[in-house]
Structures are given as C-alpha cells and as structure tokens.
Amino acid sequence: MSQFFEVHPQNPQPRLLKQAAQILQAGGVAAVPTDSSYALVCRLDDKAAAESLRRIRQVDDKHHLTLLCKDLSELASYARVDNRQYRLLKLGTPGPYTFILEATKEVPRRLSHPSRRTIGLRVPDHRVTQELLALFGEPLLATTLIAPGETEPLNDADEIRDRFQKLLQAVVYAGACPREPTTVIDFSGDEPVLVRQGRGELARLGL
User: Fold this and answer.
1) Closest C-alpha among 6, 64, 39 to residue 133
2) Angstrom distance (rounded) from CA 8 to CA 157
3) Strands 170-173 vs 140-144: parallel, antiparallel or unpaired
4) Domain ranges of the chain
5) Alpha helix locations (H) across the chain?
6) Could you report the per-residue pLDDT of 49-96, keeping only the tens digit for each?
7) Model confidence at 125, in pLDDT bands (50, 70, 90)?
C-alpha cells in the first residue's frame, strides 16, 4: 500500500518530501510530478527497485530510462559531455527536455541501453521535484507514468492512487502536470538528432 503525500506545488512541505525521500532511500518506487507529466522514480543504484519500476511500466531493458538530475553539475558525473553539448544542455535546463548521452562508468551497465551504452538525462523545471532531488542528494532513475497498454501519462491523484497503490510505495501529488512528454534529443552522435518532439521547443536550444 502506497503512502500518499499531497504537497503544495510552489511551497512543498519539507516534512512530507523528507518522508518520501526516506521511502526512496529504502528501495521504494514513487510517483512524482515533473514539468512534463507524472513519473515513476527510484534509487539509481538499487537493482531491485529498478526492476520493479520496469515491471510496473512493463518495459524491457531496451527502453531508455532517464536520470532526473538536480542540475548540470550532477549530470556531468553520469554522461560524457563535450563543450558544444554542454552549451546546448545549459540552454535547455531546467526544462522539459530529455538528452540521450553517452553514459559514464558511474551508470550501472544494466541501466544504460544494452547495445549503445547511452542514458537519458534531464533536469526538470518543477519546484516539487527539484526540492525532492535536493533532499535525496543524488539523481533518481525515472520513467513516465504511463499505464501498461496505454499511451497517455496519468495525471489525476485519485486515478494514480487507485491503479498503483499496491505497486508503489509512495505517491507525491502536487496537482495536475502539463501531460505532454519531454522533447527527446540524442546527443550521443556527431550531431544532435531529434528523437521525439514534445513540450520543449527546439528553438530554445538554437536547433
């Protein structure tokens, strides 16, 4: 049974976020708001939690999971980034962009793409997620909260609670999210490649 934390979207209660962070530290999987949609998150280095997250979404190891980072200084620990890429990343963070980058050795091999050794990274522009990441002290492994067999992310607290309360250990609810996916850009090659056009405008990156 999941614990439900209803927090203020602009001034989230630190006490509630600390409780949610403790659940994640203990190996739990949680639903949290972001600037694109609700996401499932867990500890990066917890193999059992990551497997549980994939089971809930019913995705295999070829599905790119994303690291939610507090800022670019964290991101650089988990991805190889040259100066040109860094300038583009700076333009799009925080914001509704997911960047596919070459993973460093800090990323467990089981979490990166099995054939390409890449990982998705993003810095969300959402007050609640930012404060949760700050309290947690390290990036969270994430994937969009989409029910198996569906295409739209879940956005309603009661629906998330009803459908996932037996699978999740925590739900952090802060009102509705935009419900539009991130723009995904692959930076792992010589030139940026648009993988998915979402909420983030390419013009902001100068692309």
Assistant:
1) 39
2) 13
3) unpaired
4) 3-205
5) 14-25, 47-57, 72-78, 83-91, 127-136, 157-164
6) 999 999 999 887 777 789 999 998 887 788 888 888 999 999 999 999
7) very high
Tally the residues of the chain.
207
pLDDT in tens, 38-51: 999 999 989 899 99
Which of 59, 62, 5, 60 has its CA nearest to residue 28? 5
How many helices (H) does the chain have, and how many strands (E)? Answer: 6, 11
Residue written as tokens 């867990």? 42
Class of 3-205 per CATH? alpha beta
Are residues 112 and 141 in contact, defined by beta-carbon separation less than 8 angstroms? Answer: no
As a whole number of angstroms, the distance between CA 204 and CA 157 comes to 32
Average pLDDT, the chain: 90
Distance CA 144, CA 150 (A): 12
Encoded tokens for 158: 């009661």
